[in-house]
Amino acid sequence: MEIPKEVKLVIEKLEKAGFEAFVVGGCVRDFLREAEPEDWDVATNAKPEEIQKVFPKSFYENKFLTVTVLTPELQRRGKKKANLLRPGNKNPKLKEIEVTTFRKEAKYTDKRHPDEIKFAKSIEEDLARRDFTINAMAIEVKSQIRIIDPFKGQQDLKNKIIRAVGNPEERFGEDALRMIRAARFATTLGGKEGKLSSSPFAKTREFEIEAETAKAIQKNSALLQVISKERIRDELMKIIMSEKAAEGIELLRKLGLLKYIIPELEEGYKVSQNKHHIYDCYEHSLKSLDYAAKKNFNKYVRLAALLHDIAKPRCKRGEGQDATFYGHETLSAKLAFQILSRLKFSKKDHDKIVKLVRCHLFYYNVGEVGDSSVRRLVLKAGPENMEELLQLRMADRIGSGVPKAEPYKLRHLKYIIEKVSRDPISVKMLKVN
């Protein structure tokens, strides 16, 4: 893997202007793993106004000393196209490189943002403020690449260890979201890129959180309460959309973080079910999510799989093989709505997921349920949601411990759904005026 020519050009221009410049952050970690970085960041001793003199068509609209530099291709497209690159606009065809002045951060009173940002004198001082050793490396781009690694990040990357830079309690006290990020990195960095890569930093076993770092997370987990729900949601979704989603959720529980994110999910831990299940309520939800993740189902199915039985502990009556959970699908839908609203998911997201949860317990048996009943199901769940509803049923089955996700009757139901979907099931579908 090579550093993109656009990144090299930014560094060359800064160096020609008399400044130091380095590739930094997560892209260095991914570069060493031979995984494609999502973005490329540069750190420099140039001040923001000096960066903008070198790159006149850049943007500086934040208080974190970061200047957004447009690639030459974007600059040729002109200002109108360039405006699409402003924060909040995403376009995969447009590229940007964030250039940030070396900085150090003072006290974090709110556990989220530094009270004051100061200029740092060196790249080493800048790296010292970062969260984990695997993210605290820099690349000097000369005739030969040199890795600047003051905290032994390469060694931790090779050994698959997530370790805080310096004192872990200080790092998590600065920004409590870093605790979820630790779980996210441990969950996601052992993915396909590493398994397919020949890099010595990409062995197949999973990442682990270093013992002192894990202890600090457990001790400080309550700090998560001061973090915005939007930031928590975004990190949570990176875990849920990963191949190891269920393992990531369990890691959050072990670290003491899940109770501050989805406490309702923890209510099912060790709560036994009945003769139709071999797992407890919590494990059933994780097994369902695991299947959805392995099948690469979309976010709606994954979240519905995680939340579809979340009210079972509250609905449980009796013990042992004959325990019942009457009405759990209705209460689970209500709790799912509360959880998704609390985590600031969009209305579209929670409307769709809540509908999947509410309808997940539909009954269908070949020869017993007619076309009219299937039409009512399609009308209740929505024709646009039927594929996801069937995927949720498959995940639910595997989560219950059955060996087959899609038995004959589910395949037959698919056929009937396709059949009745060609018929008008609402006035809107009729060609009348």
3D structure, described in words:
It holds the Pfam family PolyA_pol_RNAbd. Its cofactor is Mg(2+). By secondary structure, this protein is an alpha+beta fold. The chain has helices at residues 5-16, 26-33, 48-54, 72-77, 79-82, 123-127, 153-158, 168-174, 177-188, 192-196, 211-220, 229-240, 245-254, 263-266, 281-294, 299-307, 312-315, 328-342, 347-359, 371-381, 386-399, 408-421, and strands spanning 21-24, 41-44, 66-70, 96-101, 103-105, 117-119, 138-141, 145-148, 161-162, 208-209. It has a domain at 278-433: Orthogonal Bundle (Hypothetical protein af1432), CATH 1.10.3210. It is built from 22 helices and ten strands. A six-stranded mixed β-sheet has the order 3-4-2-1-7-8. A two-stranded antiparallel sheet has the order 5-6. Helix 9 packs antiparallel against helix 13 (245-254). It starts with a helix and ends in a 12-residue tail after the last helix. The model is unreliable at 79-94 and 191-199 (pLDDT under 50).
Structural class: alpha+beta
Q: Which range best describes the helical content: under 10%, 10-25%, 25-40%, 40-55%, 55-70% or over 70%? A: 40-55%
Mean pLDDT: 86
Spans of 5+ residues with little confidence (pLDDT < 50)?
Answer: 79-94, 191-199
The CATH class of the domain at 278-433, by name, is Mainly Alpha
**CATH fold naming of the domain at 278-433:** Hypothetical protein af1432
- Sheet-strand content, in percent, reads 5-15%
Tally of helical runs:
22
The name of the CATH architecture of the domain at 278-433 is: Orthogonal Bundle
GO biological process, one term: tRNA processing
InterPro entries: Bact_CCA-adding_enz_type3_sf, HD/PDEase_dom, HD_domain, HDIG_dom, NT_sf, PolA_pol_head_dom, PolyA_RNA-bd
GO molecular function: metal ion binding; nucleotide binding; nucleotidyltransferase activity; tRNA binding
Organism: Candidatus Nealsonbacteria bacterium CG23_combo_of_CG06-09_8_20_14_all_37_18
